[in-house]
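Lecture notes, continued. The same structure-token format from the folding unit now serves as the input rather than the output. Read the line below as a description of shape only.
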């Protein structure tokens, strides 16, 4: 049986994080665009894989794509055959504060995110980079130099550090686009910071080397300047909730595009 989402609002397993009820338009969008494949002009780029850590040797089941079905010019989301994507865990960025230590099990942590320079600029140097234990960010886009498939969301109007919507674990979470997939393995998709994943699935299920394997997570990036976080964004937030709350107004406006 294919996984489905019931969209009942439930409490998150982590202290201080409150589940957000998924609005009807987002629920309807999820159920509608999940069915079938992304094809034709809806398919911006295909050839990707959403099972990092399993079947690392080629040939990979590269049936995932960056898709704009029903939202052309407005948004881009990850799509597989009758499904979306899984959630691998990213711990990249500012490593000076290790949080609760769960990132310690990560085997591929890097000391900066893809847009570290932009982070310093928009935060007015209040932070030197995002902290995966605090900032809910999404890994979106694929950069490779080995001839494998690539995708640059910026070429389709998505701005670095723009607000994204993630539907996961029967919740709606707002994150930001802050990192990209590299060429240190298969051309994977479906990854988020450990703070975002924890908000979805709780501390017991998530650590630096253990994410969510079901391909039922919807990641949506939005195009245009108006998808950027506003001036009230708490880049120097001390915890996940403080940061996500500061992007909620922008996120609530953007999800109205999902029809």
């Amino acid at each position: 049986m294919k996984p489905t989402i019931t969209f009942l609002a439930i409490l998150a397993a982590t202290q201080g994080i409150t589940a957000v009820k998924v609005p009807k338009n987002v629920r309807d969008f999820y159920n509608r665009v999940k069915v079938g494949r992304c094809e034709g002009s809806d398919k911006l780029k295909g050839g990707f894989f959403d099972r990092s850590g399993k079947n690392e040797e080629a040939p990979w089941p590269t049936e995932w794509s960056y898709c704009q079905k029903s939202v052309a010019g407005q948004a881009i989301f990850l799509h597989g055959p009758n499904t979306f994507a899984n959630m691998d865990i990213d711990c990249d960025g500012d490593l000076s504060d290790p949080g609760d230590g769960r990132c310690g099990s990560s085997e591929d942590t890097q000391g900066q995110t893809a847009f570290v320079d932009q982070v310093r600029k928009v935060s007015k140097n209040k932070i030197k980079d995002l902290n995966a234990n605090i900032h809910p960010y999404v890994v979106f886009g694929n950069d490779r130099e080995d001839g494998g498939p690539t995708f640059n969301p910026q070429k389709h109007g998505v701005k670095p550090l723009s607000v994204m919507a993630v539907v996961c674990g029967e919740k709606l979470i707002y994150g930001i686009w802050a990192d990209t997939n590299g060429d240190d393995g298969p051309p994977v998709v479906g990854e988020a910071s450990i703070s975002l994943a924890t908000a979805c699935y709780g501390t017991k299920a998530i650590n630096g080397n253990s994410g969510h394997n079901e391909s039922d997570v919807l990641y949506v990036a939005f195009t245009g300047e108006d998808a950027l976080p506003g001036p009230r964004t708490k880049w120097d937030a001390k915890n996940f909730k403080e940061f996500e709350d500061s992007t909620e107004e922008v996120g609530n406006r953007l999800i109205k595009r999902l029809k």
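Point for the exam: Residues 240-254 form the longest helix (15 residues).
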